[in-house]
Amino acid sequence: MDKQFKTIPITENDSRSLNFLYKNRLGRFFLKGMIQAPLTKLAGVYLNSSFSKSMIKNFIKKNNLQMEDYQKTTYRSFNHFFMREIKPDARPLSETVNLVPAPCDAKVTVYPINEQSIFRVKHSDYNLSELLDSKSLAESWHGGSAVIFRLTPDDYHHYYFIDEGKILEHRDIAGIFHTVQPIATHNEPVFSRNAREVTIIKTKHFGKIAQIEVGALMVGKIKNVKNSGTCQRFEKKGWFEFGGSTVILLFQKDTVTIDPEISQNTKNNQETIVKFGQVVGQAIGEMDE
């Protein structure tokens, strides 16, 4: 784990529209309506229609997407484009089983989970019991770490299992769709209010982990393809439809060490840029099978 990562600052320099929605009284009034299910469903209908294809060209240009990394196809809608598949050789995958791979493309931060099951994300404290919707379940991660993978529009929006293992539990937690951009994490406890899915997995090399997918403003739909049975390292777990999204990995105490560069970047108020499959940590020792 000696490779130097690229970073971006965790910043409050958000768009004018987000500043209006979260920091203006009138904006917050409109936001209450925007984050409710009927409007998100209506947006989903449009984004799944052929009319939305006109958005694709500008989206590619605005986000400087490297389309040569993706499989060529004719897109039926903007959502079809947003869920585009990566070429197999576009993301090198480490087969060293005791190394922790990133489950997706993302901007990463890492936080310790203290005895009160609270961790800090952009100057805000989040209660782990609320995140998992279970006080007893949250106690399993006392002394562990929370690794937060924030996906942005330029990222590949599919996510994967990080190890061989058995799915012990899966739960859908209803919520409302707030943006996961930094301005929202500063003003609203988005990780406890957004719709999310929690999967508890007994992994072979990293112990019991929780993998949490969090939806976001407008559509932000979570599409998991496997909620039970066994899983394999780099097996696809699911994907996000359009909308900013987040994947959170919870590790128990004394099971893994996250790359110290990522930890230091977080302390320096920076997010670390990673790609799916890139090594972000390693097992402290072999876990019981």
How would you characterize the overall build of this protein?
With about 290 residues, the protein is of the alpha+beta class. It has a domain at about 95-289. The chain has helices at about 15-25, 25-35, 35-45, 55-60, 80, 130, 135-140, 180-185, 190-195, 260-265, and strands spanning about 5-10, 100, 105-110, 120, 125, 145-150, 160, 165-175, 195-205, 210-215, 220-225, 230, 235-240, 245-250, 255-260, 270-275, 280-285. The strands form four sheets. Strands 1-16-3-6-14-10-9-8-12 form a nine-stranded antiparallel β-sheet. Helix 1 (about 15-25) crosses helix 2.
Could you say which structural class the secondary elements and strand pairing correspond to? alpha+beta
Number of helices: 10
Q: Helical proportion?
A: 10-25%
Q: Gyration radius, to the nearest Å? A: 18 Å
Give the mean pLDDT.
81
- Count of distinct strands: 17
The SSE order reads EHHHHHEEEEHHEEEHHEEEEEEEHEE
Main beta sheet: 9 strands, antiparallel
Strand order of the largest sheet: 1-16-3-6-14-10-9-8-12
Taken from the alpha-carbon principal axes, the silhouette is: globular
| Proportion of residues in β-strands | 25-35%
Termini separation comes to 25 Å
Low-confidence stretches: 120-124
